Amino acid sequence: MKDPYDRRIGELEPLIPLAGVPWDWSTAGRPGARFAPSAVRTELYSLTPLSEDLGELRWGFDDMGDVDIVGGDIVETGRRVVEASRHVMEVAMSRGVPAVFIGGDHSITNWTSRPFVERGASLVVLDAHYDIRKLAEGVTSGSWLRELVEATKVKALVVGVSEYANPPYAPSRAKELGVDIISRVELLKDFKSSLERLKSLVAGSKVYLSIDMDHLAQAFAPGVNSPTPLGMTPFESMSVIDVITSSAKVVGIDVVEVVPGVDATGSTPRLAAALLLRAVQGSLASTNVK
Predict the structure, then answer these.
(1) What is the 3-class SS of the chain, one letter each residue?
(2) What is the C-alpha separation between 87 and 123, in angstroms, rounded?
(3) Against a cut of 0.85, is the pTM above it?
(4) Cβ-Cβ contacts under 8 Å for 254 (sequence gap 6 or more)
(5) What is the pLDDT of residues 68-83, one digit of tens each?
């Protein structure tokens, strides 16, 4: 538009470390999340830094590229992602900003969150699914949370668990694992009380926030691995993110499960970028980096 005063995220001074994890070999549904880091980056860098209530973001993303994954090799890929995440975390800590990761299917969070969890961070997940399956054979992105909790004993909370999207045993298994749940139905019946409960669960803690785009209703996010017909709205998601970023110290953020190839409109990568940006800017609003 030849507007000399307009600015986009991609033009800001780089400060917030960002890495992509193009892995989707754990996908049991629709593959293609390996292409999401590129698609979400494109949308993210094209957004403007202005939020009507949070002000103007001064700092952009220090893009460290994609982790060099090994297609089909979950063990070596996991090792590489954990190593890369530890480096990104250390850079973020030295700058006083959150670390950012773009997946990939949701199994990447088992790796990207590890260094943060090991340093005492709790985990908050926006997701329509519990992701606590235990398979007889094979791999799935629907087991990563169980694996992480069993390995690290991390305090975990899942917000947005949706009806008709989970196996019947999931609620009891979540209780056994000590995973807190705020379901889609709870949010729908009493949104204000649900947000108050969320605030009480995260207040004063360090949090790694994982945003699985399938927590949103399919009408808003059609381009995901497992579309959710009765999921959340973007405005509910914004409110949840705002409570987390204003009540806790968010040290890491990821966005996962975007499948660009099944979304002809490009709305899912763009919405993923917007929610990611909201989480980053909300996190920075409570720090000394403005």
Answers:
(1) CCCCCCCCHHHCEEEEEEEEECCCCCCCCCCCHHHHHHHHHHHHHHCCCEECCCEECCEEEEEEEECCCCCCCHHHHHHHHHHHHHHHHHHHHHHCCCEEEEECCHHHHHHHCHHHHHCCCEEEEECCCCCCCCCCCCCCCCCHHHHHHHHHCCCEEEEEECCCCCCCCHHHHHHHHCCEEEEHHHHHHCHHHHHHHHHHHHCCCEEEEEEEHHHEECCCCCCECCCECCCECHHHHHHHHHHHHHHCEEEEEEEECECHHHCCCCHHHHHHHHHHHHHHHHHHHCCCCC
(2) 19
(3) yes
(4) 100, 101, 102, 103, 108, 109, 112, 113, 208, 209, 210, 211
(5) 999 999 999 999 999 9
Q: pLDDT, tens digit, for every residue of 193-219? A: 999 999 999 999 999 999 999 999 999
Q: Token pair of 42, please?
A: 């494109």
